[in-house]
């Protein structure tokens, strides 16, 4: 989105944390993008990973200026947004997941603190941007008082050069964080079930998670005697991920909860067939004419979907073509005008309040 807005003439200053940095660093990109990289360390970020706004303005005083609007995408930057706004500059909050829904409504103190930070940000923002109708349904039930300032606008995707080119073996692919609600255990169980019924499928898992959970997944693989059929490849760069997606027989997104489903979209735009659960925003992306869907959390239904796709090359080609056509509608170039309108509406909140 940043590059798209740059091409549309929007001046942007983007603040991003980076590991391994010692001092803040400026970088100029595109036509009018100023990127400020700040060290991801205890000096710049404090409790719960919240940015220390006092340290920040001391280190980077040039950011203490009047902006047209402030766009925030992570709760870590909430203190900076509030100070920069000073109650007069409108804040646009893009919510990529509701933490209380994503992480479970746990009583663990640090999680409760994060939930409260996000919910305060929802209250103090002049405009809330959600990425799916599913997320809007959650907000309507949990925070109906914010419906008046909320809009749904899909995430976009850039056009990759890679296209689907599967090999001769049946290679399933999972891409993403290794978290318990991502359905990876269901996928491993499904692979075991399918192999016992004579389909020689393999599974590649690309992504990282907590060491303890990754160990649990590997233990499940060993118990199911899938050591030669399920491989963990760790974190990969975006370019490497695209190569994995292009070479896979099928991309599987088995999440129990999902706000949007960007990974599914990234596979579909290459023409890679997708099997996805019907969780949340995923179903809005991966409908039945462009992906095979199954009941979230049901590994037997997932097994059936894998067998159906494995045994039907014509279905593979149909999903490849239909999925790509669906994904093309989410190209950033198609969404540019909608995002500009969202920014203008948020900016107008300030103009209205001044009058």
Portion in strands: 15-25%
Summed over residues and divided by their number, the pLDDT gives a mean of 93
Q: What class would the helix/strand composition place it in?
A: alpha/beta
Kindly provide the name of the CATH class of the largest domain. Answer: Alpha Beta
Distance between the terminal alpha carbons, to the nearest Å?
A: 31 Å
**Unreliable segments of 5+ consecutive residues:** none
CATH architecture of the largest domain: 3-Layer(aba) Sandwich
Q: How many helices in DSSP terms?
A: 14
Series of H and E elements: HEEEHEHEHHEHEEHEHEHEHEHEHHH
Helix content: 40-55%
> Mind describing the biggest β-sheet?
6 strands, parallel
The CATH superfamily of the largest domain turns out to be Glycogen Phosphorylase B
Query: Please, how many domains?
Result: 2
CATH third-tier fold name of the largest domain:
Rossmann fold
Whole-angstrom Rg = 22 Å
Number of strands: 13
Question: What is the molecular shape?
Answer: globular
Strand order of the largest sheet: 10-9-8-11-12-13
């Amino acid at each position: 989105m940043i590059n798209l807005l740059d091409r549309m003439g929007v001046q942007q200053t983007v603040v991003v944390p980076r590991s391994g940095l010692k001092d803040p660093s400026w970088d100029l990109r595109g036509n009018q993008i100023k990127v400020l990289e700040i060290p991801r360390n205890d000096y710049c970020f404090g409790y719960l990973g919240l940015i220390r706004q006092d340290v920040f303005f001391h280190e980077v005083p040039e950011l203490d200026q009047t902006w047209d609007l402030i766009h925030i995408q992570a709760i870590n930057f909430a203190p900076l947004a509030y100070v920069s706004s000073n109650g007069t500059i409108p804040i646009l909050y893009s919510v990529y997941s509701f933490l209380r829904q994503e992480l479970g409504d746990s009583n663990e103190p640090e999680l409760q603190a994060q939930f409260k930070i996000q919910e305060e940000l929802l209250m103090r923002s002049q405009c809330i941007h959600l990425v799916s109708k599913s997320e809007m349904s959650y907000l309507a039930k949990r925070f109906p008082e914010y419906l008046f300032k909320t809009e749904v606008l899909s995430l976009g995707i850039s056009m990759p050069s890679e296209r689907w080119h599967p090999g001769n073996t049946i290679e399933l692919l999972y891409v993403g964080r290794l978290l318990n609600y991502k359905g990876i255990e269901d996928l491993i169980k499904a692979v075991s079930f399918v192999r016992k019924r004579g389909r020689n499928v393999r599974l590649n898992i690309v992504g990282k998670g907590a060491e303890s959970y990754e160990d649990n997944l590997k233990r499940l693989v060993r118990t199911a005697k899938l050591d030669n059929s399920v491989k963990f490849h760790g974190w990969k760069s975006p370019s490497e991920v695209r190569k994995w997606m292009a070479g896979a027989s099928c991309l599987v997104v088995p999440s129990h909860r999902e706000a949007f489903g960007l990974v599914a979209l990234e596979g579909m735009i290459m023409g890679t067939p997708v099997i996805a659960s019907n969780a949340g925003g995923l179903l809005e992306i991966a409908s039945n004419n462009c992906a095979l869907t199954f009941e979230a959390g049901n590994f037997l239904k997932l097994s059936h979907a894998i067998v159906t796709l494995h045994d039907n090359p014509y279905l593979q080609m149909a999903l490849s073509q239909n999925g790509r056509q669906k994904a093309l509608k989410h190209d950033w170039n198609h969404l540019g005008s909608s995002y500009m309108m969202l920014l203008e509406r948020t900016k107008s909140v300030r103009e209205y309040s001044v009058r």
